[in-house]
Specification:
It is a single chain. This protein is α/β, with parallel strands linked by helices. It is 47% helix and 9% strand. The protein contains 19 helices and ten strands. The chain has an eight-stranded mixed sheet with strand order 3-4-10-5-9-6-7-8. It has a two-stranded antiparallel sheet with strand order 1-2. A hairpin with a 4-residue loop joins strand 6 and strand 7. Helix 9 packs across helix 11, helix 10 packs antiparallel against helix 11 and helix 17 packs across helix 18. The chain is globular and about 55 Å long.
Length: 446
């Protein structure tokens, strides 16, 4: 079987039929997922198998959604974490899961340096007072994917963000773009836009050529498809931070998106499942049963891997972004820093765990801090809708909406088994001993 045939068949079978999305391009990238790992094909146009966004399908009948029951043991655990949340979390009304990393048990971090929080764009007037006046948060780091940002109607709320300069981190080339003028995170000028402006007024034939070359105007799925124009190297931005010490910044750093999750999950599928998928692919065009059969090995892998697998993929595929976030936190000129995803649980939890572990916190303290996120989804108004959205995708809501202690224990164990230690993991992503010393100094020294 030729590489081209494999690529087309694989994408058709695994991506198009699982997501049931149409696309105007075939798979176009051969992606190696790292040393010693399986090589897989993936197309950014089709990477929406397990959307990180919790956008809910309007067709879901919430009255029919069954919220998973909790055992007596789980109920006791949730009650215990609720008490700790009252003690450690910031007194916020709409922003969930917000606390100072100094609040972890025996944390070596000084208060007021770095906070982990949930999505900040829903903040009430009281929340804004606590975050920006009482705690003086100066730098926000948004870890969400472009898909999640697109689904956030409050992304550009002036009450929250008008005083912040927006910066976008691009993994390709490790570049950072400062958004200016009318540009916003989800309304940036792309290469296609610049060309269209340059050829404005020419015959329609030229415009059709631009569309054929760049693709028609479309939603942003993967920033790394775009060349970073008018950007600065991330390393230089960090070095020049003193020039920006008097301003507030919001940094968009997507450390996990749908494409990365797809690539990582596919790398774990058995070859025989892949072969079966390709063989069955023609029948998926007319047979719902065939489509369901193709989904099964993929969804089984996701459900069985659960949050530990997601955290493993975060550490692997999110490495460039994780390093950039740690560089920002290492810079006293940007303190206090608050980093967040949607609920402040998984991506936020992994970065918090790496920081706490590096600075010498005990595993039990790291696990406990992570577990305080257990109640966050249950407290959200659309919890039932989230359960419905996951169930609609055949994903186990109890697995992905919780924060059981074992998940973080497994994550810390995986780091040590895969890399040797947290320090060696950080070495592998380019956050070397000098960088680590700078982070420790920034968070522990007056």
């Amino acid at each position: 079987m030729s590489r081209r045939t494999f690529r087309q068949g694989f994408v058709l079978a695994v991506f198009a039929q699982i997501t049931l999305l149409s696309t105007r391009r075939t798979a176009e990238a051969l992606t190696s997922v790292g040393p010693g790992r399986t090589t897989t094909f993936a197309s950014p146009r089709l990477a929406r198998i397990t959307s990180l966004s919790m956008k809910v399908d309007d067709s879901i009948d919430l009255s029919q959604v069954q919220v998973p029951q909790v055992t007596d043991e789980e109920k006791e655990f949730l009650e215990k974490t609720a008490v700790l949340c009252q003690e450690r979390n910031l007194p916020l009304e709409k922003v969930k899961n917000a606390r100072d990393l100094a609040s972890a048990h025996n944390s070596p971090i000084l208060p007021g340096r770095v906070f982990r929080i949930g999505r900040v764009s829903d903040a009430t007037e009281n929340d804004l007072e606590v975050l920006f006046n009482q705690n003086q948060v100066k730098t926000l780091v948004d870890l969400r994917s472009p898909t999640e940002l697109k689904d956030d109607p409050t992304l550009e709320r002036p009450e929250v963000f008008s005083n912040f300069t927006d910066m976008v981190f691009y993994e390709r080339g490790r570049m950072v773009k400062e958004l200016r003028g009318e540009e916003t995170r989800m309304n940036q000028k792309k290469r296609r836009d610049r060309v269209m402006e340059a050829v404005n007024g020419v015959p329609p034939l030229v415009l059709r050529f631009v569309d054929n070359y760049f693709g028609p105007e479309r939603e942003i799925d993967d920033d790394d498809e775009e060349e970073c124009i008018d950007c600065i190297e991330a390393a230089k931005l960090i070095e020049q931070s003193a020039r920006r010490r008097d301003r507030k910044e919001r940094h968009f750093v997507s450390i996990m998106n749908e494409l990365k999750y797809v690539r990582g999950t596919l790398s774990k599928l058995r070859k025989r499942d892949v072969v079966k998928t390709i063989i069955k692919s023609p029948t998926t065009l007319v047979s719902k049963q065939a489509r369901d059969d193709i989904k099964k090995p993929f969804l089984d892998e996701i459900n069985s891997g659960g949050l530990p697998m997601l955290n493993e993929l975060l550490l692997t595929f999110g490495a460039p972004g994780i390093k950039y976030v740690l560089d920002l936190i290492s810079d006293k000129n940007r303190h206090p820093v608050a980093f967040y995803c949607t609920a402040g649980k998984d991506r936020t939890g992994v970065i918090a765990a790496v920081i706490l572990s590096l600075l010498g916190a005990e595993d039990d303290a790291i696990v406990e801090d992570y577990s305080l996120s257990a109640n966050v989804y249950a407290e959200m108004n659309d919890h039932k809708a989230m359960v419905g959205a996951l169930s609609q995708r055949s994903l186990d809501a109890k697995t992905f909406l919780g924060a059981p202690p074992q998940v973080m224990r497994d994550t810390l164990t995986n780091i040590r088994e895969s890399y040797g230690s947290v320090e060696e993991y950080l070495d592998s992503i380019g956050f070397d001993a000098q960088c680590r010393d700078r982070l420790k100094y920034a968070l522990t020294e007056e």
